[in-house]
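Reopening this ticket.

The earlier resolution said the output was attached, but the attachment link was broken on my side. Pasting everything inline this time so it's all in one place.
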Amino acid sequence: MWFRNLLVYRITSGNITLNELEETISQFPLQTCMQTEMQSRGWVQPHEEHSNFVYALGQQWLIALGTEKKLLPTSIVNQHAKERITNMQHMQGYKPGKKQVRDIKEATLIELLPRAFAQRHKIFAWIDTVNNRLIIDTTSPNKADEFVEAFLKAMHSIALAPLETKISPATAMTQWLSGDDLSSVFTIDRDCELQSMSDEKATIRYTHHELSTEEASRHIRVGKRVIKLALTWQDKISFVLYDNLQIRRIAPQDILRESTESDEDLFASDFILMTAEASQLISDLIEALGGEGRS
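Inline output:
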């Protein structure tokens, strides 16, 4: 159980107890889509072998928001609707108006929905009660918003805010690539993206490329800033830091080993290791970015 992405929120007010969280989100489970629904959303068990909606090991808790979505391509709806529109035109002798076309498309969608396949997926989040953080494993701001909306709907007494730092990631990454000192727990890797601040947003990307200070400084002098930078933390975890403070493409280095443990024991040991290492990574990154900045 390793997250591949970290989108960090600060729990700014309210207290969460394990029992309260379990009891509350279990009242909003994922339901199968009704015949005329395109999508259903609700909480699911994060570990299939456990019936609880919160997987808890000590002060670290894992939760999962499930989504079931009907797979009904617009092209299929349009194809069936077009046949109906053509038939109507033949019957009434003239083209249907805009309202008739809209009504036909809506009726076609409703008719096809019960025959559509449904697909499910989970968005995982980890609650670090020691540091009052909620961390979502996603790269999508929209999915993160959906998760936060569902979480706050269930937990009325809690307030969340995206993690902010005193120094913006773009400013810090640009300084680091220019040669400024970087905390010794981090090293710069070989992927980077620089973007101009002009309207054209001219972009330079480096992949698996040795990033020399001289070469980077040349781009920075002409007005580009770093918006993505690959880093490694303590020779243990490599990742890419984005200018919006997202941490993506997490890859543990030499801290995952083959194991003869059962699936359940392996899940638990991975979760313990992941939360311990990622929690410290986040704390070290916050320090490298000047500490937390509160809105």
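Reporter confirms the inline version is readable. The mean pLDDT is 87. Residues 263-288 form the longest helix (26 residues).
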